[in-house]
Amino acid sequence: MSMKKKNEDVVVAQSAGFCPGVKHAIEQVMALEASGKKPIYTLGPLIHNKQATQMLEMKGILAIDKPADATNPRGVLVIRAHGITPDLQKEIETLGITMFDATCPLVKHAQNIIAKFAVQDYTTVIVGDKEHAEVIGLMGYTQNRCHVVSTLQEAQALPHFDKVNVVSQTTQQESTFFEIAEEIKKHADQCQISNTICQPTKDRQRETMEQAQHADLVIVVGGKHSANTARLAQLCKGLTKHVQHVETEDELDENLVKKAKKIFITAGASTPSWVIDSVVHRVTHLRHPIILKVINRP
Ligand code: SF4
To answer: What is the rounded distance in angstroms from the CA atom of residue 108 to the CA atom of residue 38?
Structure first.
């Protein structure tokens, strides 16, 4: 995502938009489509963004809920950047359909760390969202000794462990992870802390927190079901006067946009650049309609 400054008082995050893992998965799927492979199934939506999912459907790239929904054996079944459990992978292999694994290498890294300690009899505690596809995939590597917690209160309620390995969902907030890890230390004889938050997430969160302090309106662009987008909006609360989480430019609070002195626009890891551009365009138009007319003149 390139930095765009339409005017001095509106700043767009350099880190806004697709993370390397999502970008790579999309590029791989587009390359499959361009090579004529049909149909292309993805196990769950390739990215958590309604607009992008609609665009992919128009190209014949179909999101399915379970491997058995891939009814055409000549198709290709793509595993998303989030990854899956080893059991689900075996199930796909028995179907005989071609499988393409687009699991992000940074998610694979987290899976490998879990597997390495699980075989040494460590119980795994994952700091993350129980329902999230990545976390469900990570749980598959724990040898069925696993807890998932997302709050300090949940960590306080954990039992005592002989050996525990604390890992993180890759998009978790770092301060939350360390706070929970400190609590879990008190519950174990041996505690391994494996910070598996990915670097692109750390960079995005750091930039968002820095810039939010200088803005009086932060606009976070991305799907309402995208956990990492919602977390960005959450991070800004308390750092700036107003935070708006929007999926498209139509949801902007025009009054706030016109009145704000300084606006910072950021976006989740699954927000396409054209959605961000539309929001930036509308913001600029609302604040400086004359400038935009000149920019748009052929
Ligand atoms: S958020 Fe991080 S780990 Fe997850 S897909 Fe993107 S780059 Fe990979």
So the answer is: 27
With respect to residue 1, please indicate whether it lies within any of the assigned structural domains.
Answer: no
Map tokens 């400086």 to a residue: 288
pLDDT tens-digit profile of 34-61? 998 889 999 998 877 777 778 888 888 9
Does any ligand 1 atom lie closer than 6 A to the CB of residue 12? no
The count of domains in the chain is 3
Catalytic residues: 134
Last residue of a domain, one of 197, 219, 244: 197
Query: 194: which strand partners?
Result: 167
Mean pLDDT of 256-263: 95
Instruction: Determine whether the shortest distance from the Cβ of 106 to ligand 1 is under 6 A.
Output: yes
In terms of Cβ atoms closer than 10 Å to its own Cβ (0-12, 13-18, 19+), residue 73 is exposed
* Tokens read off for 246: 């929007």
State the pLDDT at residue 20.
94
Asked whether residue 264 is domain-assigned, the answer is yes
Distance CA 107, CA 114 (A): 11
Residue 119 and residue 192 in one domain: yes
Alpha-carbon span 115 to 208, nearest angstrom: 33
- Ligand 1 pocket test, candidate residues 47, 172, 201, most atoms within 8 A of CB: 201
Residue 4 inside a domain? The answer is no
Residue 32: which domain range?
A: 20-103
pLDDT digits (tens, 9 = 90+) for 220-229: 999 888 888 9
Q: What percent of the chain has pLDDT over 90?
A: 80
Best residue among 1, 47, 104, 204 to mutate for probing ligand 1, ranked by most atoms within 8 Å of CB: 104
Q: How many angstroms separate the CA atoms of 233 and 270, rounded?
A: 14
pLDDT exceeds 90 at position 156: yes
What's the pLDDT at 8? Answer: 66
Of 157, 173, 197, the domain-final residue: 197
